[in-house]
Amino acid sequence: MQPTERSDAVKIGQIERQIEALLFVSTQPVTAAELADHLGISTGRAEEAIAAIKKSYEGRSGLTLLNLAGGWQMATAPDLADVVDSFSSYLSMQRIRLSRAALETLSVIAYNQPVTMAEIEEIRSVRCDRVVETLLKNGLIDRPHRENRKKSQRRYRTTNKFLEIFGLSSISALPTLEELREAQNDEENAEEDGEKLPEKQMDDEEAE
To answer: In whole angstroms, what is the distance from residue 114 CA to residue 205 CA?
Structure first.
């Protein structure tokens, strides 16, 4: 079989393509010896193929090969970290569908952390244990593992995943309550203006 040309300097043959496919589907680092054993080739030939694949990626691909824990793993190119991270956050947000109750509870935790279940329920005036469990399950909040308190006294706080999903550099980047009130007032005023407009148009028509 004729090798496939990836660049002027690197030729990719069938062994390279097979190893590339195996590294693509592997969820953990794989050694050259493991690849060689699976494909029935020498470890030297596997190492040669890995080097060729890595070379073919340099400057021409969004992928790279990393040597981790004595094995090889496919990864995205380091210079694309920002766009990959932002897309990961976007996908996480798409997967998480929070109810209004969950969003309200998350807001209470974000603005009052660390906060206990009792304090959350006092602020919201409803039971919140199931909602808190949902937020824990989605990784948006957590609590110190060293705490061995009663459930109602455990303290909850937001996680780095919360910051990533909502595009915040830190908790201090959250809008203040005053800013939120102003935004809500602006929204309400805009809605009222929108409701009044048809009435004005009707008046104009009647005047004609």
So the answer is: 58
The CB-side HSE value for 147 (13 A sphere, CA atoms) comes to: 14
Q: pLDDT tens digit string along 22-38?
A: 999 998 999 999 999 99
Using CA atoms, how far apart are residues 154 and 57, in angstroms rounded to an integer? 49
State which H helix or E strand residue 167 sits in.
Answer: none
CB 135 within 8 A of CB 119: no
Three-state SS for 121?
A: helix
What integer pLDDT is reported at residue 64 of this predicted model?
Answer: 93
Query: Per the structure block, which two tokens stand in for 154?
Result: 């455990």
Q: What is the pTM for the complete model shown?
A: 0.46
> What separation in angstroms does the CA of 50 have from each of 6, 42, 78?
14, 13, 18
Our measurement of the distance from residue 78's CA atom to the centroid of its chain's CA atoms, rounded to an integer in Å, reads: 17
Cα–chain center distance at 9? 37
CA distances from 149 to 113, 136, 152, 153 (A): 17, 17, 8, 6
Distance CA 183, CA 66 (A): 47
**pLDDT tens-digit series, residues 71-85:** 999 999 999 988 887
CB atoms within 10 A of CB 133: 10
Reported as a pLDDT band with limits 50, 70 and 90, residue 53 is: very high
Report how far residue 193's alpha carbon sits from residue 23's, in angstroms, rounded to the nearest whole number.
59
Q: Give me the helices (H) in 58-208, please.
A: 81-95, 100-112, 117-124, 129-137, 160-165, 177-207
How far apart are alpha carbons 99 and 208 in whole angstroms? 48
